[in-house]
Amino acid sequence: MKHTYQQARYDEPLLIEKGRPGRIGASLPPWDDNRDLSALLPAGMVREDLKLPEISEPEMIRHYVRLSQMNYGTDSGIYPLGSCTMKYNPKVNDRIASHPTLQRMHPLQPEDTVQGVLAMMYELQEALCEIGGMAGCTLQPAAGAAGEFTGLLIARKYHETRGDLKRDEVIVPDSAHGTNPASAVMAGFKIIEIKSAPDGSVDLNALKGALSERTAAFMITNPSTLGIFEKNICEVQQACHDAGALLYYDGANLNALMGKARPGDMGFDIMHYNLHKTFSTPHGGGGPGSGPVAVSCDLVKYLPVPMVVKEGKTFRLDYDRPDSIGKVKGLYGNIGVLVRAWAFVKVLGGTGLKRASELAVLNASYIRSRIESVYPVPFTAPTKHEFVASADFLKEKGGSAKDVAKMLAERGLHPPTNYFPMIVSEALMIEPTESETMEELDLFSDALLDIAKRSAEEYKLAPRTTTVSRVDEIGAAKNLILNWNQFPKEQ
Fold it and tell me: What's this model's pTM, rounded to 2 decimal places?
């Protein structure tokens, strides 16, 4: 019998049967309240004497409210983690992504029942291509690192198709994100690391010395993790292309360039976008993420299947791509993240995205101007979206970048990234993003300046106001608890 799709009401859950949605019905097994669920747990984790307190409703509510107040997020205050920054994201985008119709769709529905979603995905692909200056884009990869892996598989397929099988090396600068070399190794490449120039930019001589007939790609982000725009990017791309290598753009710092410059115009062949950073999705704790990959004209045919294509007024998933690297994710991407990104681009438009980049650079530059007389910034190039300061001077009185982080937490502020990139001693990698106000920037800067005046004794006591105080890090490192049965039996 031919299946007929029937849209469920917003308030009805869906029963997925044979890859198609249908109404919930009597075929679901009834819930048995008398089942002994303890049989499903390891014996050592089942309490024999369960004593639960009897409490009033106000007590219960206050308990959970206190727990929620212990959390820190972008709704609480500034979140200045360099490179992996979380910014405030409009709540309207969350509401759009939470629409019941969208949430109750199934990825295996017939294409004629999901034309709206396919249209949204197609529009987002086209927008990302325009923003990046690229020719084609896939929304499949589920995170930035997954995007790197996808892009490098495309690079490998490109060289293999041309019969250039000896290209098994990927070059990365010493300031690269840690995922760059990890993704390259996963894609089957060897890593060649080159040192940065004294001014923090790519050392052209070091790059040319590393390039060879074995080089598959050079991976960089621009601006770099130091917040420095690569002023020699044209020479970098020329050197790579002359050597037959591809140029890969890590899009983690695209929020410094949107509307100002495009990686494709700089000569990059492959790039990934961190939608969960630049394009309005709250992220952290491993997800949700999304890392679309865009490529130049010569590489479009290698993009993963399926691609969302438009034929007349209809959208469909195109699997007929014989040169594709295949699937890199079971379905078509993290749809909730894609919807947020689509809404973000639609609301802001080109002018708004450009303004977001301008404010990101302005905010980072402002904090730098407030603190650099105390916390030295090793590189003199103009700051873009982030900058790296050094707390090395605190060593003289027994302090460190780690102590700065703990004292910020003591003041109710989230610390910046510590000890990365490792080419800066006692690094503080600070990125305020475009969404912070002048008052919040001053609050954060004032706290940093005050912390620099504290004593060694105060450093070692912090944090004193947090739920968990300073831990014995050496003891924790020596006495690792790696699985549940290492916990004490009696708590």
Answer: 0.84
Q: Which carries the bigger pLDDT value, residue 18 or residue 50?
A: 50
Q: What are phi and psi of 185, to 5 degrees?
A: -65, -40
- CATH 3.90.1150.10 in the chain: give the residue spans: 349-470
User: How far apart are the two ends of the chain, measured CA to CA in Å?
Assistant: 59
Largest distance between two CA atoms of the chain: 80
Which of the 8 DSSP states describes residue 161?
H
- Residue 207 to residue 452: CA distance in whole angstroms: 38
Nearest to 389 by CA among 361, 365, 359, 406: 365
Q: What is the DSSP string of 55-94?
A: --HHHHHHHHHHHHHT---TTTS---BSSS------HHHH
Fold of 96-348: Aspartate Aminotransferase; domain 2 (3.40.640)
C-beta separation of 202 from 220 below 8 A: yes
**Phi–psi pair at 361, nearest 5 degrees:** -70, -40
pLDDT tens-digit map of 347-368: 999 999 999 999 999 999 999 9
* Alpha-carbon distance values, 96 to 100, 101, 274, 298, 357 (Å): 9, 10, 20, 36, 24
Domain 349-470's class? alpha beta
In sequence order, the β-bridge partners of residue 314 are: 311
The predicted-structure confidence for 81-139, as pLDDT tens digits, reads as follows: 887 777 888 889 989 998 988 888 898 999 999 999 999 999 999 999 999 999 999 99
Contact (CB, 8 A) for 426 and 419: yes
pLDDT at 425 exceeding the cut of 60: yes
Two structure tokens written together for 89? 């994201």
Ranges for all domains in the chain classified under CATH 3.40.640.10? 96-348
Written as six digits, the tokens of 47 are 């309490």
Please write the tens of the pLDDT for every residue from 460-486: 999 998 888 888 888 888 888 777 666
Measured distance CA(360)–CA(434) in Å, rounded: 4
Indicate the residue type of 246.
L
Q: What pairing do the DSSP bridges indicate for beta strands 293-295 and 136-138? A: antiparallel
DSSP-derived letter for residue 442 is: H
Quick one: tokens of 415?
Answer: 């610390």
Separation of alpha carbons 309 and 323, rounded Å: 17
CA pair distance 330, 401, nearest whole angstrom: 41
